[in-house]
Amino acid sequence: MEGEGVARVDGMVVFVPLCMQGEKVRVMVREVNKKFARATVIKVLEASEDRIYPLCPIFYRCGCCDMQHIRYDKQKEIKKANVKACLYKALGRDVEVDEVRGDGVIFGYRNKIQVPLAMQGGEVVAGYYKGNTHTVVPFGERVREDLGACVMYERGMQDMLDAFLGYANALALDCYDERSGKGFLRHFVARRVGDKYAVVVVGNGKKLPAEKKLISALTDTGKKFSLYFDSNTKKTNVIMSSDIKVVCGEERLEADVLGVRAKVSPLSFMQINDGVRDMIYTAVADAVKEKGFGAVVDAYSGAGVLTNVLAKSAREVYGIEIVSEAVADADKLTVACGNTGKVRNICGDCAKELPLLAARLREDGKDFAVVLDPPRKGCDERVLDAIKKASPDFVCYVSCNPATLARDLARLDERYEIKSVTPYDMFPQTKHVETLICLERK
């Protein structure tokens, strides 16, 4: 389950990351609780036929991904089994689950990186945290020309990072220390948007020093970019604050999502895998189009990207979002997409707004569908109650967490029948999986 091995010792369950079913391993127990223990592998004595040599040379030390040691087809089998097991646990019955779908890109797929920075050997280094610690494991050398030093993102992102590290070390900048609250550099954040890069330096201060030197270093990469400085002076482990200023370039970059051209800021939420995101959004749009509903409601609609994608397949679309700034962006996007007469964005709590909207749609004699794409913690229980009260004819639920998805489905189970369960590999080489479930009112 989730890329971890599970063993029993004297009746106690022991979770062992980085080992697989059927393997014989020597482990060291690191943590013991009342009901389970956790251990780390010291040596693999008998390896599974599905074990492979990871592409990344620091895989076993870095905490970025969980499954590079597993053959890719087996990774997908494990993810499907995880979704199926979560549904069985919550619903008490077997549910048919489709094969895991992906776009075939299993390395270099991330369009965004958030890299912690640290001082090692008197220099600024970048890497990811070692599992369950705040110790930075510096990236190694690139293993493929088309990839970054971290094989989860592509070369262009690495060019940006290399330019930044050269600048930081030339100026002898120091890094933030969580214990003392001192030091300047905290994180390097970069996102690829089309053929451009949004580069954010997160620092414990009010201003980025020697801005022109960094602009020059980034320009030398030959890539198009906008540079931002995020002043995060709070003693917190939150990566980015809301105090972001443009150093050079555009305030927002334009992303194309299935023909919807959205303006993206450094704080905007976007899925990190463009190809698989488009597969899921297309599947959602096709599902509601096939049914031919009078209206579609996009709950948790954010800045309105999926709302406007749905407008291509539905006659009438409503987006409900509680964050007023996101709704303002959604209104601008609706105008830019030419959907003013087709899309309406509602600012408010979905738990309150959905039943009111449903009542109006029913009065007008319209059947309707609801699309849910909540954060990892799943749907607010009040929103699920609102869905039961609103009683939409069809529900599409997009989830990045099988456990909270299954929990939420259990709350809808008496009212809705599961029509399809399709996992998508949004995050190859990791234990995470995205799932699209379509529900029909009984």
Map the helices and strands.
Blueprint: E1 4-9, E2 12-17, E3 24-32, E4 36-46, H1 72-91, E5 112-120, E6 123-129, E7 136-138, H2 155-170, E8 185-193, E9 196-203, H3 211-219, E10 224-231, E11 244-248, E12 253-257, E13 260-264, H4 274-291, E14 295-299, H5 305-310, E15 317-321, H6 324-336, E16 343-347, H7 350-363, E17 368-372, H8 381-390, E18 394-399, H9 402-412, E19 416-424, E20 434-441
Parallel strand pairs: 2-4, 9-10, 14-15, 14-17, 15-16, 17-18
Antiparallel strand pairs: 1-2, 3-4, 5-6, 5-8, 6-7, 8-9, 10-11, 12-13, 18-20, 19-20
Description:
There is one protein chain. The protein has 442 residues and is an alpha/beta fold. It folds into 3 domains: 4-51, Beta Barrel (OB fold (Dihydrolipoamide Acetyltransferase, E2P)); 89-102 and 273-441, Vaccinia Virus protein VP39 (Rossmann fold); 112-257, OB fold (Dihydrolipoamide Acetyltransferase, E2P). The chain has 9 helices and 20 strands. The chain has helices spanning 72-91, 155-170, 211-219, 274-291, 305-310, 324-336, 350-363, 381-390, 402-412; strands spanning 4-9, 12-17, 24-32, 36-46, 112-120, 123-129, 136-138, 185-193, 196-203, 224-231, 244-248, 253-257, 260-264, 295-299, 317-321, 343-347, 368-372, 394-399, 416-424, 434-441. A 7-stranded mixed β-sheet has the order 7-6-5-8-9-10-11, with helices on one face. Strands 16-15-14-17-18-20-19 form a 7-stranded mixed β-sheet, with helices on both faces. A hairpin with a 6-residue loop joins strand 6 (123-129) and strand 7. The longest helix has 20 residues, at 72-91. The radius of gyration is 23 Å and the shape is globular.
